[in-house]
Amino acid sequence: MKGARIRCGSLWIAAMVCLLAVLDPAPVRSEERSTAAQADTQSAVAAPAPAAGEEKPTADLTVSAFNLYYYQGRAYSRNSLVIQPSLTIGYRGFSAGIWGNLDTNPYPLDPTEGKHGGNWTETDVTLSYGKTFGRISAGLSYAYYGIAGAEGADTRDQHDLGVSVKLNTLLNPALNIYYMFDNSQRWYFMLGVSHTFAISGTLSLKVTATAGYLASAMDRADMDGAHNRIDDRGTVLAEKYNNFLDAAVTVALPVKITKFITVTPSVALAFPLGKDAENYMKYNSYTETAMDFSDKPSRFLIYGLAAGFGF
Q1: CA angle 190-91-142, nearest 5°?
Q2: Most-buried pick from 14, 85, 258, 274 (CB within 10 A)?
Q3: Which of 98, 103, 92, 100 is nearest to 60 (CA)?
Q4: What is the pLDDT of residues 244-301, one digit of tens each?
Q5: What does the alpha-carbon distance between residue 280 and residue 216 come to, in Å, rounded to a whole number?
Q6: What whole-number distance in Å separates Cα of residue 142 and Cα of residue 68?
Q7: 10-310 — its CATH code?
Q8: What is the phi-psi region of residue 165: left when phi exceeds 0, alpha when psi lies from -120 to 50, beta otherwise?
């Protein structure tokens, strides 16, 4: 583990107290976590944009509940409700955020690891900067992933660096590139398009489609299945995974309840892009270990509700 681990619920309370003490109420757009299937389930704009010339700090608190925790081709939960709070503050293009995952019934991928020491299985901290140049938006990000291991041990923490480019035009095409390092080395490229249909002044429909490509950068001697090709029988091959991975289609329905509160129900379907991707997703997702490999799922339906408060 690098540095202190952040897992206690008191951190969220302290952070909110500090924000309420130092920030004037101002609208904010949620800083979305970059998952293939859950990226659009955070709150949309919670209030109108500030008037021209205003430079106010912004903040957003979102609490989401899903039937599944899915990220970059892998399901990290099984038969449980996951609750994912996030808190983001921003100013002049810079933002800092914290995100967590509470699994109501944590289930280990490898039975030899034993059960997690608690239901709080992950805490992520992100720092980012974004700027718009006409019709082009670009951003840089750093993320720290604090991931609980067996009996709550912090043995699988990760870091990643990200670059994003988006065209503010028809379908909002966007490219996100992430490089994960430390305990795992790999590249993940995600291309996405989205469109929002305004239904009324308080209701809209957002449709998003993404496709991901995974390229392992691990030494072959250190690969553990999350970086390897997997054959049709579930055998880990001594070959790096370097191929298209997953696609996802998400439909979200942001509903503006008040000036500062938005509630967003959503549903997403994630599926593999090819046979290699199908085997990878079967092997690396949290599924019943006794299940025959050919019967393991590689397509996942993710649905839930997000409630966001922005000021």
Answers
A1: 35
A2: 85
A3: 98
A4: 999 999 999 999 999 999 999 999 999 999 999 999 999 999 887 778 998 999 999 9
A5: 12
A6: 25
A7: 2.40.160.40
A8: beta
